[in-house]
Design goal:
The chain is of the alpha/beta class and about 180 residues long. The chain has 4 helices and 9 strands; from the N terminus they run E-H-E-H-E-E-E-H-E-E-E-E-H. Helix 1 crosses helix 2. The structure holds xanthosine-5'-monophosphate (XMP) and magnesium ion (MG). The site of xanthosine-5'-monophosphate (XMP) has 20 residues, from strand 5, helix 3 and strand 8. Keywords: Cytoplasm, Glycosyltransferase, Magnesium, Metal-binding, Nucleotide-binding, Purine salvage, Transferase.
């Protein structure tokens, strides 16, 4: 699996440092609150489990699953809700934990969904931001690492369901795409 990687963009240490920095900031900003922290499956699984342990607050934890990519490296444009949250968000402070913001469509969909349900506040913490990919206006409140306009894998992010378990974030060799 490691042999398929052309270059490492962010090492395990880079990711760990980003989690610590964001965790501290979130701890300060939410002092005295009891937010619902919602991990966006599946890409954010590792980031979610790491960052919540860097946040010193009482919180509820939940997960939501939306699908937009359908296997390739291009966003399809339409978002589908695959698994909803279990907790009632009405009147609550919601913090989404995302792996990456690219076109911005997923973020917009999630914000609209929970604001319609009466969330008191909605903020977004993303490990990675790919600003050049934006198609709709979307901005994360907490950004760990910025990435160029390339398809990245690892630390939760997949290509055709694979590479999620790489401990770092990297770019695949072109032959991996052409072998598809
Ligand atoms: P949008 O385009 O809606 O994207 O902002 C959000 C979701 O798309 C996936 N995504 C990626 N997945 N490598 C991946 O493995 C990438 O470079 C990439 N860019 C976007 C991801 O699931 C994200 O939550
Ligand atoms: Mg995702």
């Amino acid at each position: 699996m490691n042999n398929d990687i052309l270059k490492t963009l962010y090492s395990e240490e880079d990711i760990e440092n980003a989690c610590k920095r964001l965790g501290e900031q979130i701890t300060k900003d939410y002092q005295g609150e009891n937010p619902i922290v919602i991990g966006v499956l599946k890409g954010a699984i590792f980031f979610m489990t790491d960052i919540v342990r860097d946040i010193d607050l009482y919180m509820d934890i939940d997960f939501i699953d939306v699908s937009s990519y359908h296997g390739g490296t291009q966003s399809s444009g339409s978002i589908e809700l695959m698994k909803d949250v279990d907790i009632d968000v009405n009147g609550r402070n919601v913090l989404f934990i995302e792996d990456i913001i690219d076109t911005g469509r997923t973020l917009k969909y999630l914000e609209d969904l929970l604001s319609d349900r009466g969330a008191k506040s909605i903020k977004v913490c993303t490990l990675m931001d790919k600003p050049e990919g934006r198609v709709v206006e979307a901005k994360a409140d907490y950004v760990g690492l910025e990435v160029p306009n390339e398809f990245v894998v690892g630390y939760g992010l997949d290509y055709n369901g694979k590479y999620r378990n790489l401990p770092y974030v990297g770019v695949l060799k072109p032959k991996v795409y052409s072998n598809k």
